[in-house]
Design a protein that fits this description.
heterodimer, A: alpha/beta, 8-stranded mixed β-sheet, 6-stranded mixed β-sheet, 15 helices, 40% helix, globular, B: alpha/beta, 11 helices, 8 strands, 14% strand
């Protein structure tokens, strides 16, 4: 079954086209600047053929129409007929408490995604637009929604309820939801595979460190805690997000600086994290360079970033009652030996013994970076959220078709 | 209907504010002024305002670049221009506004909706300067436009329902709460606020309390975020006086007649925040000095 995977953002649509049976990505790309004029398409076929061209994309429907036309294109495409698209898988940011798994898109499912808009106002509306566009463009083709939050639905209440008046949970759904679920699920399963063990038999901590970062405590394959919370702002230090802070400081600063709610929100989301501490950059590569050159605040940013991860590893080891593996993934997790080494520094007592050579050598690849005698294994694994979405889509559509047929 | 492109005549404070707010909402803006140096000042003013937003962490440098890239200073309207809206934001002078509208009528295609930003003049009267009074609507933005959460949308006698709906979708796209008002000088905001400010000025002139204490009493007593005198200083006492005189002229009620204290401050060049001194004193960042 061939599957189109879409990630529809506010002004862009990213796509990957899979032969899901083989698990092979045949083409990928994105349409940028949707609705802004001067829209651009980047398209890449597996054989290396690339195009970059200006396209007309005043809305998501037009952008996705362009994507489909490109997949069909004689010179750059990968399919000869639209009917080869067996299903469409969509990344959807927030599934609230309703979705504990990926779901075949129905009117009811769309309504539920719409109900979650209040929880993810920057993402869900665009995700929904992508789904509606596909209904128009590919009538009759089944669609599946894969939620960033779903994997974490197994968290127990003591991990997801905040110690604020309980009525807020009832009234507004204020609780920990967690994000990056697809990535945490994928890399945990891959780690178990590499260890030659069943995921149901082991405890894993996964660290997805990218522009947004989160960690998850995974007990026998089920997420029991994660560092992002009600929103993606909580937890680790990120490029421009603050992660864990004393909530009182927000109120204090709002009073002192006479900030509005939207100014304070932007301060915590866009001006904090690595960028806020260092005053240099939100990009870990630049922070590492500056820190190596002795720039004081870059050193501090790196210290805070890795200390926070170390603290969470300790906390999650306790929450899980011991661990078998730690996985690093995401842009920083996969590419920064320094961040990995610093995050694991002093954790020998947990049974972690790093193979320094291996760690240093492993940039952007899958590898085990602990020594042979290390009781806890540490892996770097390249995440592939789109592949998970494709596989989920195939699984759900196949079982639906079997039931029907 | 998604609004893509608007034209603004007048690069003064109101024009700058509308341009900034619209561009922030993803709309392409052409802004013009009859005076090239005023246009340059207008663009500089928008940049200053965005820089201030960055200082307050409301915006990132990248976002500022994107917003600025959407605003284009122009000296002339091209014939058959296909903007969704043409907005006049020139000084509150009926003849001037009519001249601007006549120019709009000549250059813009049929699909363009004309907007006046007036707060005191008759929109029906202004609409008479064009051959398409059904396509004219009032949108009274408040200063500072990017921060004011509402806009008064005003239908004139001949404004069509379609035009009114277009104006509402522009307001919605700029994330402003729409308050629909009937055409009457001062609408809600100006009409209610003017006597309020005027009364505070009289209280000061008659020696009831200091300017600071008058503002504090109103702020703390009634939960207002800003006192009437600081509000007057924010608007600018010269602009405030123009509005007052216009309302007084149209409605004839003494409660709109500028308090002599305001007149005196304007004559002394103490125009409010923009000159650093009005009823109160401000630093160069327009923050009130305690």
């Amino acid at each position: 079954m061939k599957i189109l995977v879409l990630n529809s953002g506010s002004s862009s649509v990213k796509y990957k086209f899979f032969d899901a049976v083989e698990g092979i990505c045949q083409a990928s790309g994105q349409v940028e600047r949707i609705g802004l004029g001067g829209s651009l398409l980047h398209h890449r076929r597996m054989d290396g053929d690339r195009i970059r061209s200006g396209v007309e994309a005043t809305d998501h429907a037009q952008a996705i129409e362009t994507v489909i036309a490109t997949l069909l294109s004689r010179n750059h495409g990968v399919i000869a007929d639209k009917t080869e698209i067996g299903a469409v898988g969509h990344r959807v940011a927030h599934g609230g408490e309703k979705f504990t798994n990926s779901a075949l898109v129905t009117d009811e499912v769309k309504d539920s995604i719409r109900d979650c808009i209040e929880l993810a106002p920057l993402h869900n509306p665009h995700n929904l637009r992508g789904i509606e566009a596909c209904e128009q463009l590919l009538p009759g083709v089944p669609q599946v929604a894969v939620f960033d939050t779903a994997f974490h639905h197994t968290m127990p209440p003591h991990a997801y309820i905040y110690a604020v008046p309980y009525i807020l949970y009832r009234r507004y759904g204020i609780r920990r939801y967690g994000f990056h679920g697809t990535s945490h699920r994928y890399v945990a399963a891959r780690a178990a595979e590499k260890m030659g063990r069943s995921l149901e038999d082991i405890n894993v901590i996964t660290c997805h460190l990218g522009n947004g970062s989160s960690m998850a405590a995974i007990h026998k394959g089920r997420s029991v805690d994660t560092s992002m919370g009600f929103t993606p702002l909580e937890g680790l230090v990120m490029g421009t997000r603050c992660g864990d802070i004393d909530p009182a400081l927000v109120l204090h600063v709002m009073g002192k600086e006479n900030l509005t709610v939207s100014e304070a929100t932007a301060m915590l989301n866009k001006h904090s994290g690595l960028a806020g501490i260092s005053g240099i950059s939100s990009d870990m590569r630049e922070i590492e360079d500056e820190a190596a050159a002795g720039q004081e605040r870059a050193v501090l940013a790196l210290d805070i970033f890795t200390y926070r991860i170390r603290k969470y590893i300790g906390a999650y080891s306790a929450a899980l009652g011991g661990i078998d593996a730690i996985v690093f993934t995401g842009g920083i997790g996969s590419n920064s030996p320094l961040v990995r080494a610093r995050s694991l520094d002093g954790l020998d007592f947990l049974g972690i013994s790093i193979d320094t050579d291996m760690n240093t050598r492993c940039v952007g690849c899958d590898a085990e970076i602990t020594s042979r005698e290390s009781r806890v294994k540490v892996f770097t694994i390249l995440t592939d959220e789109e592949l998970v979405i494709a596989l989920d889509t195939m699984r759900i559509v196949s079982s639906f078709q079997q039931q029907r047929g | 209907m998604a609004i893509k492109r608007i034209f603004i005549a007048g690069a003064g404070r109101m024009g700058q504010g509308i341009a900034e707010a619209a561009a922030t909402a993803g709309i392409e803006v052409d802004i013009s002024d009859i005076d090239k140096s005023r246009l340059d000042q207008g663009m500089a003013g928008i940049e200053t305002s965005l820089n201030k937003a960055i200082e307050r962490w409301a915006l990132t440098a990248g976002e500022k670049r994107v917003i600025l890239s959407r605003i284009r200073p122009v000296m002339n309207i091209e014939d058959g221009a296909d903007h969704d809206f043409a907005i006049e934001a020139v000084p509150e002078d009926p003849e001037l506004k009519k001249t601007v509208f006549a120019g709009f009528d000549e250059h813009f295609g049929d699909q363009t909706v004309f907007v006046t930003s007036t707060s005191t003049l008759s929109i029906t009267d202004l609409a008479g300067a064009t051959g398409r009074p059904d396509r004219i609507v009032g949108m009274h933005f408040l200063y500072p436009v990017p921060h004011a959460a509402m806009v008064e949308v005003v239908g004139a006698l001949k404004t069509s329902d379609k035009t009114l709906r277009s104006a509402k979708s522009l307001a919605a796209q700029m994330k402003k709460r729409i308050i629909e008002v009937h055409e009457y000088p001062g609408f809600i905001t100006t009409r209610v606020m003017i006597p309020f400010i005027n009364e505070a000025a009289y209280a000061l002139m008659e020696g009831v309390a200091t300017a600071g204490d008058i503002d504090e009493a109103i702020k703390l007593g009634f939960g207002f975020p800003i006192g009437p005198l600081e509000l007057a200083d924010t608007i600018g006492l010269d602009d405030l006086m123009t509005v007052m005189e216009s309302l007084f002229g149209v409605l004839g009620d003494l409660k709109y007649k500028p308090c002599p204290m305001i007149r005196r401050l304007v004559m002394a060049g103490r125009l409010g925040k923009k000159t650093g001194r009005g009823f109160l004193t401000y630093d160069s960042g327009e923050d009130k000095l305690q």
